[in-house]
Amino acid sequence: MRKLSCKVCGNNEFQVLNVNETLCKCGLRLTKLSDYRSEEPKIRTEHFYPDQKKQAEVISKISLLKRAIDKCLDEQDKETFKKLTSELRVCQHVLQKGVNDPLVHSKEGLKQKQDKM
């Protein structure tokens, strides 16, 4: 269950005036749900958000790598192209297989994946 707090002062103790109206200690009358700020339970933030954050980081890294690869193709730099494409393959593997793959977390696992590709 979520805890509600005042959007203005952050207080979570209210005085009920009517059925749909509460009064905060700061004097604000809270009548709509948008007047409140909800705190999500710790379990949800600990378990769900880190994976989403890591996936977002991987997606942005893939985008940056693709731009760098395009630049290398324009400049015809083969060595950098090979290095960036192998790194891109690893990032795509991480995104497909999941962030929790044990081979992806260790540096040795990353080297193994790059060597295979």
Automatic annotation (TrEMBL):
Gene3D superfamilies: Virus Scaffolding Protein, Chain A. InterPro entries: IDEAL_dom, Virus_scaffolding_prot_C. Residues 58-88 form the IDEAL domain. Pfam families: IDEAL. It comes from the Bacteria. This is IDEAL domain-containing protein. It comes from Metabacillus rhizolycopersici. The lineage of its organism: Bacteria, Bacillati, Bacillota, Bacilli, Bacillales.
